[in-house]
Amino acid sequence: MKNLSESNTYNRYTLSNGIRIIHKYTDSPVAHLGITIDAGSRDEKPYENGIAHFIEHCIFKGTATKPYCRILSRIDGVGGELNAYTTKEETVVYATFLTSYYERAAELLCDITFNSIFPEKELEKEKSVVIDEINSYEDSPSELIYDEFEQLVFGRTGLGRMILGTQDKVSGFNGAMIRDFIQRNWFTDRMVISTVGNIDFDKFVRLVQKYFSKVPAKLSADKRRTTYHYYPKHAVKNRDTYQAHVMIGNICYSYRNNKYIAFSLLNNILGSNAMNSVLNMHIREKYGNTYAIESSYTAYRDSGIFQVYAGCETHFAEKITQLIVKELETFANKRITQSLLTRGKQQLKGQLAIQYDSNQNEMLSIGKALLNFDKAATIEETFRQIDEVSANDISEVAGEIFVADKLSSIIYI
Asked: Which pLDDT score is estimated for 1?
């Protein structure tokens, strides 16, 4: 086992079974602890679509030593919060609690991650919960359109499957299928324990060793090398809603691509949630034909996706689509001004600083960073990367991603 000091901000340690630890000290009375596992919905086989998310629900349903009622009250009963979420590439289980309950949280997270027994009676009850979640999601077109756009772009690959799965698939899940997925996809050297809290690093290492060092080593082979044969696709779907929903975008860079930072900055300038984004100012405020408009960029291990979403009255859908394409073409064909670039950098750095002002957000972020890059950049290091982006860098990525004849689209009317 090797103790690595990453920086003045983060400390690292690796257990003999391959599980990595990353720690940041803070003097807050509230602590955050999480486990990030390199397994998500893209790792499912077609017949088990939705099982990664289903497992996230079911790890709270009982272990060899604790019934679900004790699990659910173990942290919540002392004023804390126990939670989990699933993405296309990760499963994350985490807790927020008063510092005095560090050991309780560590023991519980270890127990539910590695000792859950998935009792069939509880699985049947949870199927109804997840199916209700699916139905609720399908009733929200402004959310559903993001997943359907990824299905359009990525097709039948793992990235094209919806995280929640389908009612038919979820109805057929059982304990044997859950254990098979975990056996195939959960590896100790692809797990990270992250914490931000008022605990000495050496003390935290001893605490983690007490519980997690007993987990047998299970080492992984490299995975997720997918070739995407992308070509633009377009779809119009009648959903019988008052408001039309428009989605335009393209396949994009992975988070390992050296253009990741430049495109993240460009996306933020174009259509972040800020009211002064280019899309908001040039379309919503100028014309008033759309209630909501924003862009997003999600990067994966070997690919990524860029999307522009707008909600508007049905008769404005064609006009809004044209206006979005026009704004993208402007970035692709015209060099960004230095003033807009400088303002964009300041804005992105401010947003990141606010995000990191939440210790929980930072705990989750450094866990994912260590998992994917084997390091976690400090906020200062990230700022330096943003400052290094040039106008030429912006022009290059815009010219590759924002070209009109490379764009795909979905419209709900």
From this structure: 39
